[in-house]
Amino acid sequence: MNSFVYDIPVKVYFGENQLGHLGEELARFGRRVLLTYGGGSIKRIGLYDAVMAELRRGGFEVSELGGIAPNPRIDSVRQGAALCKEKHIDVLLAVGGGSTIDATKWMAAGALVDHDPWEFFSRWAPVEKALPVVTVLTLSATGSEMDSGGVISNPETHDKIGRMAAPLLPKVSFLDPTNTYSVSPYQTACGAADMLSHIFEVYFDMAPGLYMLDTFMEGLVRTIIRYAPVAMREPENYEARANLMWASSWAINGFINGGRAQAWSCHPMEHELSALYDITHGLGLAILTPRWLEYCLDETTAPRYAQFGTAVFGLDASEPPMAVARDAIKRLADFLFGTLGLKSTFTEVGIQAKDFPVMARKACGGDVLPGFKPLRQADIEKIFEMCL
Ligand code: NZQ
Ligand code: ZN
Asked: Is pLDDT above 80 for 261?
């Protein structure tokens, strides 16, 4: 195994009735707050009013930027960065799902540079600093509440690009599972598929890892498989929502990497799908994942799948690894498309084969995706074909 650094300095308030701490946390950074949110779900569930009451109680000077879309656009980032400069914002408060949090992180970085925020993606402009970001999470999926990443779309160039940078790590995140009671069964399912993929991108790797982290990841997967259907059936089941929420953070906050340096595979492929077709991130991942696993399966990789199948689905470890591996992929597909009810093909979501070459080329940066199995453009096109 590799040596590694563990450094996840995000303060988390988990559970109900924690919002009373919002004022004291924001006050550590200043008085002028930019409140950001999406298309209005926070108003419908009363969270906007609750947050505003805390902000009033703390005597903050509040500016607002709502309307951040799923697959957030660079235009929102530009708008937010400009607002931060104009209003001399001290701290940004993102209330919403991954899209709101991601866009807010890049507003926080854009506020402190003179160039267009898109240059963080187009020419990889350095991210040396950012204004502090505090989050109130409303959807369990991306883990943006506890990681340093943010994914931004540019409809003009058909790009959707993710980038991590330490200054973007939220300073504080409020994780109240009751704020996710209103998440629809469909978004709950997509969130589960996203979390699973975050784990698979790390778990499916042939480098020797840590047994401790393997079992941790298998436990996270079992947690998601156990509780996502419960949350879909009983949206106000606190135990289910709480388990999913904490799993979403730990699937991607860096802990499970444990020094593995492997690049991700399904995410770069999916980002091309949502860049061009604006589909939900978790849905794209759900369609890709079983096909990607099938494509990467061979005699060398089969034992890894077999470990997964026995640990997660209780398959028989005494069977030949290839047979267990195939069964594990089938069980996973049954979970995603049967239990979660997600669409299972590109055809059903309108993704067309004519776009495969360009999406595949962009996914591997015109070269190779050095993941579980190195994937070149031709490999990615084949995986896309399997999804039709
Ligand atoms: O916009 P509003 O009205 O808030 O509605 C949203 C949106 O329509 C709704 N929603 C959120 N919380 C809700 C709710 N509806 C009812 N009740 C609530 N409590 O759900 C819809 C989807 O929201 P969004 O924020 O887009 O979803 P998600 O959290 O899945 O974020 C997806 C984005 O994050 C990126 C994805 O690529 C995508 O752009 N990712 C970010 C990552 C990161 N920062 O590390 C990693 C991920 O792999 C991912 O790429
Ligand atoms: Zn994801």
From this structure: no
Asked if residue 162 and residue 105 are part of one domain, the reply reads yes
User: Do β-strands 91-96 and 32-37 pair in parallel, antiparallel, or remain unpaired?
Assistant: parallel
109-159 confidence digits (pLDDT tens)? 999 999 999 999 999 999 999 999 999 999 999 999 999 999 999 999 999
What's the domain range around 67? Answer: 11-179
Residue 2 within a domain: no
Residue-wise pLDDT tens digits, 83-95: 999 999 999 999 9
Q: Could you tell me the sign of the dihedral formed by the alpha carbons of 259, 241, 35, 100, in that order?
A: positive
Distance CA 150, CA 148 (A): 7
Q: Quick one: pLDDT at residue 254?
A: 93
Residue of 45, 127, 138, 142 best suited for mutating to test ligand 1, as the one with most atoms within 8 Å of CB = 142
Ligand 1, residue 190: give the atom nearest the CA. Answer: 30
The label of the residue with tokens 């992929």 reads: 329
Task: Say if residue 78 is in the same domain as residue 129.
Answer: yes
345 & 375 share domain = yes
Select from 102, 121, 181, 200 the residue to mutate for testing ligand 1; criterion: most ligand atoms less than 8 Å from CB: 102
